[in-house]
Design goal:
The protein is an alpha+beta fold. About 25% of the residues lie in helices and about 25% in strands. The chain has 3 domains: about 1-100, Helix Hairpins, CATH 1.10.287; about 110-265, HSP40/DNAj peptide-binding domain (Sandwich), CATH 2.60.260.20; about 270-385, Sandwich (HSP40/DNAj peptide-binding domain), CATH 2.60.260. Helix 2 runs antiparallel to helix 3 (about 40-55) and helix 3 packs across helix 5.
């Protein structure tokens, strides 16, 4: 799908508020909805683009990421339309998003209401749940599978999720005649206005329960928990998330379960710091190794490696271990490990070593160079003095 600016797609400014974004999207959705444009592939594409833009801009966190980094930033968010962004955002995703916020499986239900005896197209849906999982850099580098216990609403075993007592049954709602929605007509100076709202008697279910299940009080669900396996791919970052479908709360009256949103956090590492897919390690070496050179052991995310330190290595020198960083998320290759050298200075030395150091200090080889005149000239040029 072509990546256009989301604000441009919805026709709103970058300072648009939540209501402005929702209103702009609704107008476009009404115009391009597939039910209004059967067989029109261009309208379908416009509907998907508008919904994609709406899904990003209505969410403060996604919007902030998009404002900062654009489409590339969204592509780093694991679980955002699949790892790697909205590449897999299809028509079913768009329709589901539209139904979630505006109701009705068909846009004509919203425009003209539903006739008596018709069946509501939108089913109840359980609430989404959100959990956080902390990962070490080693787990992020290798990928890991974790099993977590999630407290959630589950279907009632006594009534099978129906909410009806054993031996009883549901009855068609007398107010909406099973539609789950009611239509009201009002006359204004602009003309006749029709409005469709969920039925308040059956709460949109289209049916009422005369004898409710005592275990769940007619809700069709009870409190419980589930063990959920989370397969974390290599290369995720703190703030990335993934969606485990149907592992949120069960829905009342056998509706569609919500999803489980798993947000990843990175644990602080005692040795490494992470910058993108690269890791940085500060390595202390002795004065003698820096002066004479030698081979030292360097920790990596996959065990120790040996590197050669050339004679005369200066503090701050950076050595690169290619391919020893974090794997790129869902693509080949991985980052590097950057090893920054600093010279370790002992806090105290023995008397014999102190005398040896004094002798070395008198040698011209161990005297640092004096600041050059050119340095001060450049300094004056920089500050205009």
């Amino acid at each position: 799908m072509e990546k256009r600016d989301y604000y441009e797609i919805l026709g709103v400014g970058r300072d648009a508020g939540e209501d402005d974004i929702k209103s702009a999207y609704r107008k476009l959705a009404m115009k391009y909805h597939p039910d209004r444009n059967p067989g029109n592939s261009e309208a379908e594409e416009s509907f998907k683009k508008a919904t994609e833009a709406y899904e990003v801009l209505k969410d403060p966190r996604k919007r902030q990421t998009y404002d900062q980094f654009g489409h590339a930033g969204l592509g780093q968010a694991a679980g955002f339309g699949g790892f790697g962004g909205f590449g897999g955002f299809d028509l079913s995703d768009a329709l589901r998003a539209f139904m979630r916020d505006f109701g009705g499986g068909s846009i004509f239900d919203d425009l003209f209401g539903m006739g008596p005896g018709s069946t509501p197209r939108r089913r109840n849906r359980g609430e989404d749940l959100r959990i956080r999982i902390s990962l070490s850099l080693e787990e992020i580098a290798a990928g890991v599978e974790k099993t977590v216990k999630v407290r959630r609403m589950v279907g009632c075993d006594t009534c099978g999720g129906s909410g009806v007592a054993v031996g009883s049954s549901k009855k068609t709602c007398p107010q909406c005649k099973g539609a789950g929605q009611v239509r009201t007509i009002s006359r204004t100076f602009l003309g006749t206005v029709q409005q469709v709202t969920p039925c308040n008697m059956c709460r949109g279910a289209g049916e009422i329960i005369a004898d409710a299940c005592r275990s769940c009080n007619g809700d069709g669900r009870v409190g419980g928990s589930s063990d959920v396996k989370i397969k974390v791919p290599p290369g995720v970052a703190g703030g990335n998330y993934m969606t485990v479908e149907n592992m949120g709360n069960a829905a009342p009256n056998k509706g569609e379960p919500g999803d489980l949103i798993v947000v990843f956090e990175e644990k602080n590492h005692e040795i490494f710091s992470r910058h993108g897919d690269h890791v940085i390690c500060e390595l202390p070496i002795s004065f003698t190794t820096a002066t004479l050179g030698g081979t030292v052991s360097v920790p990596t995310l996959n065990g120790d490696e040996s590197i050669k330190i050339p004679a005369g290595t200066q503090p701050g020198k950076v050595f690169k271990l290619r391919g020893k960083g974090i794997p790129h998320l869902h693509r080949g290759g991985r980052g590097d490990e950057l090893v920054q050298i600093f010279v370790w200075v002992p806090a105290s030395v023995e008397a014999s070593d102190r005398e040896l150091l004094r002798r070395l200090a008198r040698s011209d080889s161990f005297k640092p160079p004096k600041p050059s005149k050119s340095f001060f000239e450049k300094l004056r040029e920089t500050f205009g003095v």
